[in-house]
From TrEMBL:
InterPro entries: DNA_pol_delta_4. It comes from the Eukaryota. GO terms for molecular function: DNA-directed DNA polymerase activity. Residues 14-25 have a biased composition (Polar residues). One of its GO terms (cellular component) is delta DNA polymerase complex. This is DNA polymerase delta subunit 4. Transmembrane segments: none annotated. GO terms for biological process: DNA synthesis involved in DNA repair; DNA-templated DNA replication. Residues 1-25 are annotated as: Disordered. Pfam families: DNA_pol_delta_4. It comes from Rotaria sordida.
C-alpha cells in the first residue's frame, strides 16, 4: 500500500493505548510506572555536596566531573553522591548542580 503508515495504535486489555512500530513497541502503561524518582532526602545530600566548597566550585560542570576532580585531589567526596549519580544517570537534578538553571 502506498502511503500507509508503519505505526499503528492498539488497545490492550486494560484500555491503555500502545504505539506499535515495525521495530519498536512502546507500552505507555509500563514505561511511566518504571521511572525511578529520587527522594527528597537524597536530593538534600546532593545539595549539601554542591554547597560544600571543600570539593571546589560546582557551577558549569556536571556533578560526576566535580566528584572525580575531588577524588583526583584526595578530597574524599561522599560515596553516596557517586551512588546517586550512577543510580539516576538521566536525571538532570541528580547529574547537574543546584545552579544548573542559572547562566554564568
Amino acid at each position: 500500500m502506498v502511503g500507509s503508515s508503519s505505526i499503528k495504535k492498539r488497545k490492550n486489555n486494560n484500555d491503555n493505548t500502545s504505539i506499535v512500530d515495525k521495530q519498536n513497541v512502546v507500552d505507555n502503561s509500563k514505561t511511566n510506572s518504571t521511572v525511578k524518582k529520587i527522594s527528597e532526602k537524597d536530593l538534600e545530600v546532593l545539595k549539601q555536596f554542591d554547597l560544600d566548597m571543600t570539593f571546589g566550585p560546582c557551577t558549569g560542570i556536571p556533578r560526576i566531573d566535580r566528584y572525580e576532580r575531588a577524588l583526583r585531589h584526595d578530597l574524599d567526596p561522599p560515596t553516596h553522591v557517586l551512588e546517586l549519580i550512577n543510580l539516576y544517570p538521566n536525571d538532570r537534578q541528580v547529574t547537574h548542580c543546584i545552579w544548573r538553571d542559572y547562566t554564568l
